[in-house]
Amino acid sequence: MITIAPQRLIARAPSLRLLWSAMLVLLLSGTAVIAQGDPKRGLYVANAAGCIGCHTAETKDAVSYAGGRALKTPFGTFYGPNITPHPDAGIGRWAEADLVRAVRLGERPDGAHYFPAFPYASFSQMSDADLRDLWAYLRSLPPNAQPSRAHELRFPFGWRFLVLGWKWLFFRPGTFITDAKQTPQLSRGAYLVSVLGHCGECHTPRNFLGGPNRDRLLSGTKAGPEGKPIPNITPTRTKKWNDAEMREFLSTGMTPDFDSANSTMMEVIRNTTSKLTAEDLSSMIAYMRSVPAIPEDK
Ligand code: HEC
Ligand code: HEC
Description:
Elements: H1 6-35, H2 39-49, H3 51-54, E1 70-73, E2 76-79, H4 96-105, H5 120-123, H6 128-139, E3 152-153, H7 162-170, H8 184-196, H9 200-203, H10 235-238, H11 243-252, H12 263-271, H13 278-290
Antiparallel strand pairs: 1-2, 2-3
Helix pairs in contact: 2-6, 8-13, 11-13
Bound molecules: heme C (2 copies).
């Protein structure tokens, strides 16, 4: 048995205390660095998630993130709200926790439910670090006083409390779980496609209540969010393009036969896929290649 004489313990105490406080300082400064979001990284997250598209009007002089963008759906027209830090028109009075709640749970600070036109069903699994940086980025935007515009929804879809039923049926909040059998590249690709890129919001077919058909992920639909057809992006269809061709399409919108993407996808390319790092774009493509090939919907 090892015993330490009391006098030796006392003699050692100051150095122990010093070591302890040094560790504490390290620990605290470490948390401070982690807790402080990085707005530059946040801009990258915002791009990868295409936030600007739905939250900026389509007019030439529109202010980024000041809202006003019309999103036509079978349920009516939604208008992306102002999300600049303006205290009245935007989200200036919000705390970081309010953004986390909105993105993770689709809940307003007062507890009301957001319509799933705000793709929180995909964003729900956003990582803590990405949310923190996203918050830091949104805080860095110039506040803009343009009031958000009320949605124009068909009866009875304008009733917010009905969203509770939709959530109960279709919304599965949760954290992004990396499949241990997957390579880091495929996990990153899955996160970019399913969470940040929310590609399935358009490319996955939905039932008449707007619930995604999970057996047919990314397999396209005859009537997407705007009622127009959306192609299958599982290997059934995308195998016609090699990686370089896919990369070209997602960077510029040009197809191998010199066609260009239509306006809906062009916007995704402009706001999101063209802004990804080469590495992230490769991960996204690798993941698209890895999903089950689902036949075209006849
Ligand atoms: C496909 C379109 C779309 C995309 C992409 C999108 N949003 Fe939204 N967002 C909406 C709509 C529509 C609403 C309003 C929902 C409602 O009124 O229930 C909304 C609401 C919000 C709100 C709540 C504002 C308020 O005043 O209550 C915040 C915050 C927000 N979005 C942030 C973001 C961020 C951050 C991103 C990117 C990570 C993003 N949105 C991407 C469509 C979108
Ligand atoms: C707002 C709806 C929308 C979203 C979100 C969306 N897409 Fe698309 N996508 C479309 C439409 C519409 C087309 C058809 C474009 C055309 O015909 O020119 C398309 C076409 C494509 C194609 C070409 C398929 C082909 O064979 O012609 C690829 C690849 C693609 N999308 C990948 C993606 C990826 C990856 C994401 C997520 C980062 C994504 N899309 C998000 C609407 C969307």
